[in-house]
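Q: Give me the 3D complex with succinic acid.
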Amino acid sequence: MANRKIVLLGTGGTIAGTSSGSGNAFGYTAGQVSVEGLVASVPLLPRVLAGRTLVVEQVAQVDSKDMDDALWRALALRCAHWLAQDDVDGLVITHGTDTLEETAYFLHALLAPAKPVVLTCAMRPADALSADGPQNLLDAVVVACDAAARGVSVVCAGVVHGAEAVQKIHTWRLDAFDSGDAGPLAQVARATVFWARNPAPALARYGESAINSIANLSIWPRVEILASHAGARADTVRALVRDGVQGLIVAATGNGTLHHALEPALLEAQAAGVQVWRATRCANGGVLPGEASPFPDAGALSPVKARIALQLQLAAVQQVS
Ligand code: SIN
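A: Here is the predicted complex, encoded as structure tokens.
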């Protein structure tokens, strides 16, 4: 594997977090330890790299709750740059858990990479009594080096999840992620990947020019999420439309149903040119096709991922027009 590379991009998160000196797993600050510092905490890395060089780059140092369009653009451009290098076998990205599934889906939908892009994280800060970050980082590098790996995945607590299915489902457990009905792609143990199924080839959803659209747009299309819930009010929709929203994802009840108070305002929004999609508030099942509705459904995508899909779709159209 001489002259081959794995590239590690650091963006912050709890995996790079430190507490106030007490080794406390709570009450810490995310995004403190450099990506070089994370590598230093995993002495086994050279063994799993099997002769490959690990190139490290600090793209950002944030708490991922604060993820935004500018940082996503910077990360996507660095990923596109490294994925285009013939001597790069795969990428690993360290990231906070809070918006990990969004970044994973964003990169998946935008780049549809053939090579592995493996996001990893931690639920305990780097200086916790038993930090989970070093093992997760090692496992992520193992996946990035695996010959069968391709596309964007998430590695946490020994489990490999696909970008479309993965969701954070727990606020403090170390295995905080789940793939719902789809199930995990693989498990990692003893520096070996045990595949449950073949990672599906990524689909180039937005065409080759999508990355250029994102690189060139100074302001991305505004897409907001609102929930259909008991006591929902049409005023919320009308206020967003007045404020210039271009797309609305309704986190709908059950199989994509909407509170009757929202429907007229959503129809007005649609007539005014706002794209309105229905996703479901339920963690599993998605919205099954077949129900008659004036509003398209987001299928199996969660509301936060449907928001990204609609944003990328609007960005592609905006770039062409
Ligand atoms: C973050 O998302 O950056 C903080 C929380 C975490 O990584 O678990």
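A quick observation: The mean pLDDT is 94.
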